[in-house]
Amino acid sequence: MSIEDPISRYEICVGLNDGDARSQKYSKETYEKIIFNVCKGLEISYSISKIDGVYVHEDGTPIKEKSLCITLLGINDQQAEEIAKDFCVIFNQESVLVLKYECKYSFIKEKIITNTSDVS
Q1: What's the mean pLDDT in 91-98?
Q2: I want to staple 13 with a disulfide (CB 3.0 to 4.6 A). Which of 37, 52, 69, 105 is the partner?
Q3: Dist CA 27 CA 3 (whole Å)
Q4: Whole-prediction pTM
Q5: Dihedrals φ, ψ of 79, to 5°?
Q6: How far is it, in rounded angstroms, from Cα 10 to Cα 100?
Q7: Cα torsion 20, 25, 29, 33: sign
């Protein structure tokens, strides 16, 4: 296995509760479609984790909330900030959490070779 040079890994965590209504207006699937369209338009690969937690609003009010955490590789700080701003506006959030990690990575590729003459 060959580990590549370090790369920045960003996680953008977006709450699904509307910032004004303080409740979830749409299904997770709807939010996932929006994320897909944003990332597709930017030609960025990503993965999504679904998490449950508590967000404390700026006025001090805590509220249970489902969130989506989008993991992105191969972008820079400016791109991560722009994507986070887009999600903040699109999902009507008070704020969106951006985490940055430096990590090493490797894509593992393996194929099974079959002898097609053995297949009936």
Answers
A1: 94
A2: 69
A3: 38
A4: 0.82
A5: -65, -40
A6: 5
A7: negative
Q: Sign of the CA dihedral 86, 71, 52, 55?
A: negative
Structure tokens at 27: 């299904």
Mean pLDDT of all residues in 39-67 = 91
Q: How many helices (H) and strands (E) does the chain have?
A: 2, 4
Cβ atoms of 103 and 5 within 8 Å: the answer is: no
Q: Could you tell me the two tokens for 91? A: 């999902």
Q: Residue 104 corresponds to which amino acid?
A: K
For residue range 83-93, what is the model confidence (pLDDT) as tens digits? 999 999 999 99
Burial label for 2, CB within 10 Å (0-12, 13-18, 19+), is: exposed
For residue 63, the SS3 value is strand
Instruction: Give how far the C-alpha of residue 107 lies from the chain's centroid of Cα atoms, to the nearest Å.
Output: 19
Contact 47, 55 (CB under 8 A): no
